[in-house]
Design brief:
It is a single chain. The chain folds into 2 domains: about 120 residues, 2-Layer Sandwich (Dihydrodipicolinate Reductase, domain 2); about 120 residues, no CATH class. Helix content is about 40%, strand content about 20%. Strands 4-1-5-10-11 form a 5-stranded mixed β-sheet. A 4-stranded mixed β-sheet has the order 6-9-7-8. Strand 2 and strand 3 form a beta hairpin. Helix 1 packs across helix 4 and helix 2 runs antiparallel to helix 3. Bound molecules: iron/sulfur cluster. Iron/sulfur cluster binds next to helix 5.
Length: about 300
């Protein structure tokens, strides 16, 4: 296949995939919402979950986005150095966003900073966001897509703690964000926590943590224990679905960590909402694709 044809094919597939993920929630998010609804004993909370399921059924039937805020589009790309379209990826992902914006349709969420006008295309200076991991000796390409809505982005924060503040300081930082801004993010929340040296390392890890399957556990036993303790702690606040009260407030808590400077603890939190629009697609070098997040998706 000629390279231009391959670029066109991958652009089409990504445009359709982005549009699909705006309408249909990932399998694990839907399953978790059903689990929380079943475990909830607050009648109002049950009604809110039922409204979410009705919303999802209508979105699928009418082919309309799951939430009106279809977010700023972000990609985490893990690309093998041997993937044939590695040089074209940035351009084709931008084209795919343009196409998905008009075809799905998606809300226009790209405002040029300092100029303060909406481009109307969901693209702008360095938007969509693309984070890269270039992987040697591989010829496939994994793409995580994420629709970063305004409300669920709002609780995001990062700071560097004094080392003496320890993991108690990390816990306090996360819980402070949940009690002050958690409501803005349409709970139940998926909470991503990054622990590293500086604000940008922690912040990127906290976003990455949102891309893993719900209920993933950090391979480090202590970090995994902290995920569970934070989950229990945030649930105990009683925020409930849409902040209307309930026994459960989180879809999950995921921690991503990196080794740190001994004199600093960088910590960051990023939040996903009940309409957690993430997707994961893997292309081989022939552009055969595997989708891990949405079992019903055929491109
Ligand atoms: S927080 Fe999520 S569900 Fe709520 S308005 Fe924003 S994108 Fe939509």
């Amino acid at each position: 296949m000629a390279s231009d044809a391959m670029v066109q094919k991958m652009t089409d597939m990504m445009a359709r995939f982005i549009g699909y993920t705006g309408i249909i929630l990932p399998d694990d998010v839907t399953a978790k919402l059903k689990e929380l609804r079943a475990k909830e004993d607050n009648p109002l909370a049950k009604v809110i979950y039922d409204t979410m399921f009705r919303n999802q059924a209508l979105a699928e039937e009418m082919r309309r986005p799951s939430c009106q805020d279809t977010g700023a589009i972000q990609f985490w790309v893990r690309c093998g150095t041997g993937f044939p379209l590695i040089n074209d990826l940035a351009g084709l992902l931008r084209q795919a966003v343009l196409r998905a914006t008009s075809d799905t349709p998606l809300r226009h969420n790209a405002v040029e900073t300092f100029e303060e006008y909406n481009t109307g295309t969901n693209t702008g200076k360095d938007l969509p966001t693309i984070w890269w991991e270039i992987v040697p000796n591989r010829d496939d390409c994994e793409i995580y897509t994420y629709m970063a809505g305004g409300g669920c982005t709002l609780p995001g924060a990062a700071m560097v703690l004094m080392p003496g503040e320890g993991y108690e300081g990390v816990t306090k930082f996360v819980l402070d964000r949940m009690t002050s801004y958690g409501l803005n993010a349409c709970p139940p929340l998926l909470v991503g926590v990054g622990v590293a040296t500086s604000v940008e390392t922690a912040a990127l890890l906290s976003k990455k943590a949102l891309l893993w399957p719900i209920g993933s556990r950090n391979p480090n036993e202590r970090a995994a224990k902290m995920e569970k303790l934070l989950e229990d702690g945030i649930n105990a606040i009683g925020i409930g679905p849409q902040g209307m009260g309930g026994r459960y407030s989180v879809l999950g808590v995921h921690i991503e960590n990196a080794a740190r400077h001994p004199s600093a603890i960088g910590v960051a939190v990023n939040v996903g909402c009940w309409s957690h629009r993430r997707g994961h697609i893997i292309f081989d070098r022939e552009l055969n694709c595997t989708i891990t997040t949405h079992s019903g998706c055929v491109l």
